[in-house]
Amino acid sequence: MASSSLTQRNPTSSQPDGEQEQLETAPRPKRQHSLSERAMSHTLTTAADLANLLPTGTLLAFTLLIPVFTSNGSCDYPTHILTTVLLTLLSISCFLSSFSDSVKVDDNVYYGFATRKGMWVFNYPDPNGLGLPDLSKYRIRIVDWIHAVLSVLVFGAVALRDKNAVSCFYPAPEKGTKEVLDIVPIGVGVICGLLFLVFPATRHGIGYPVTGDEGRR
């Protein structure tokens, strides 16, 4: 009787141990999965924050054209050259947009580029500029050059966070290169974001939101 009771107790006592083992090992994959989700969420948030510092048109062109130019990351020699040209043109667009500005006249918005004497408005109907306010306050400043350089750096950081662009130029990166591609864009984004706070933008150029002119200078 004692032996039979032992044989009945042993299976029932060993079963909870097996279940306890499974309960202890089950959360580990979920934990790794949550960490990967956090990393992905952090990457997307960083990319979104960087995108807010760029002209809307340039960012939209990059988002739409980069998968086409890179063949979804599978670049050959012609697509590699075309992608390089595309990124160069978009970088120039970011640079020039930092010198663009807008002025409101009779509830109409007119755009132009800052010069040393003021602003050249290119879409105003009167070529003589009759009816425009004093444009001397829109003249080019040192902070415009700072914003132009920062915009190009931010665009480069955004491009390095795009999987199609990275796969085109670095299809099989080494471990060191991959670490650089993961760290440098985030570092550049943080530094540029802080510099944008130190030197806030006062222009409302092409691709940027337009607000009232009061208190802009």
From TrEMBL:
Subcellular location per the Swiss-Prot or TrEMBL entry: Membrane
Membrane topology (UniProt): Multi-pass membrane protein
Superkingdom of the source species: Eukaryota
GO-annotated biological processes: endomembrane system organization
Record region (Disordered): 1-37
Compositional bias annotation for Polar residues: 1-17
GO cellular component: cytoplasm; membrane
Entry keyword set: Membrane, Transmembrane, Transmembrane helix
Record-given protein name: Protein DMP
Natural source organism: Arabidopsis suecica
